[in-house]
């Protein structure tokens, strides 16, 4: 088989895979632009009979969606800052410092990945209740600020940083936190980009934890607002699809901003000893 045929075949397979991947989003957009009766008529077609762009405007008035977006952006912003800082600092400690029980402690932290999140939700809820953090941003942000997966990525990436850079900074009289801030962090920008994307994505799409912590509608996040947007006896699929599409925009923007570092960060965070 010639190289041109292989390239053509690969292009065809990738094109089909791309269409299959994009089809759910195309169907969401199609449903969002249909009339409510047409969306539930059972007549399967992609192109709407009448393009209802006004559905997006109507969707923003059905529920305080912009308020949900604002709450979620606040949670994501501070969660990203806190999570990235903790994971990078802890990853640096595990990668570049030698202390008794380091490997055992690291394995214990990794073992928490095998614990289903649902098991610790009830204890966390009672802790938040004692702290009076129910229906607060602190309750949404702090309990999941440190992630074992993020710490693992940070540790694996920071192993690749030459020890000579750190030793040279120490010889020049730099303090440990100064070394971390001025030597380590500038060399782990791909890692930071990966952590930002993952943390933002997890927090933006999180439903279960806000459902437990938040009962006041003024504190609803995007996913919680979408879940509550469903009617008890009737679901307006056009409005729901409009809100869902709008909720995807911030995630796409974050990925587009940091995508140049994403692949490099994932490759650099591979298994290294």
Summarize this structure briefly.
With 273 residues, the chain is mainly alpha-helical.
Q: Hey, roughly how much beta strand do the residues contain?
A: under 5%
Could you tell me the number of beta strands? 0
**Rg for CA atoms:** 23 Å
| CATH domain fold name of the largest domain | MetI-like fold
Fraction in helix: over 70%
Query: Under the CATH scheme, which class of the largest domain?
Result: Mainly Alpha
Tally of helical segments: 14
Structural class: mainly alpha
Low-confidence stretches: none
How far is the first residue's CA from the last residue's CA?
41 Å
The best one-word shape is globular
Q: What profile does the largest beta sheet have?
A: none
CATH superfamily of the largest domain: MetI-like
> How confident is the prediction overall: mean pLDDT?
86
Could you name the key traits of this structure?
273 residues; mainly alpha; MetI-like fold; 0% strand
Overview of this structure, please?
- There is one protein chain.
- This protein is 70% helix and 0% strand.
- The chain folds into 2 domains: 52 residues, no CATH class; 206 residues, MetI-like (MetI-like fold), CATH 1.10.3720.10.
- By secondary structure, it is mostly helical.
- The protein contains 14 helices and no strands.
- The mean pLDDT is 86.
Topology:
Elements (H helix, E strand, L loop, with lengths): L2 H30 L3 H4 L14 H9 L2 H32 L5 H10 L9 H11 L5 H5 L6 H11 L4 H9 L4 H9 L4 H17 L2 H6 L8 H7 L8 H32 L5
Helix pairs in contact: 1-14, 3-14, 4-8, 4-11, 4-13, 9-10, 11-14
């Amino acid at each position: 088989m010639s190289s041109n045929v292989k390239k053509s075949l690969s292009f065809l397979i990738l094109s089909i895979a791309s269409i299959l991947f994009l089809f759910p989003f195309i169907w969401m957009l199609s449903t969002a632009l249909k009339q409510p009766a047409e969306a539930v008529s059972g007549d399967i077609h992609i192109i709407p009979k009448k393009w209802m762009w006004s559905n997006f405007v109507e969707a923003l008035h059905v529920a305080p969606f912009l308020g949900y977006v604002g709450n979620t952006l606040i949670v994501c912003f501070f969660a990203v800052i806190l999570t990235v800082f903790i994971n990078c600092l802890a990853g640096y400690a595990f990668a570049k410092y030698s202390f008794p029980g380091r490997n055992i402690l690291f394995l214990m932290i990794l073992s928490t990945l095998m614990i289903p999140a649902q098991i610790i939700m009830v204890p966390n809820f009672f802790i938040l209740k004692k702290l009076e953090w129910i229906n607060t941003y602190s309750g949404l942000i702090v309990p999941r600020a440190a992630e074992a997966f993020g710490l693992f990525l940070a540790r694996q990436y920071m192993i690749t940083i030459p020890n000579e850079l750190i030793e040279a900074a120490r010889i020049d009289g730099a303090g440990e936190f100064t070394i971390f801030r001025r030597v380590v962090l500038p060399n782990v920008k791909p890692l930071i980009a990966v952590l930002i994307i993952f943390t933002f994505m997890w927090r933006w799409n999180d439903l279960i934890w806000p459902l437990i912590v938040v009962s006041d509608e003024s504190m609803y996040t995007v996913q919680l607002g979408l879940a509550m947007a469903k009617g008890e006896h009737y679901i307006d699929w056009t409005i729901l699809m409009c809100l869902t599409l709008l909720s995807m925009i911030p995630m796409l923007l974050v990925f587009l901003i940091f995508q140049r570092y994403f692949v490099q960060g994932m490759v650099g965070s591979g298994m290294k000893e």
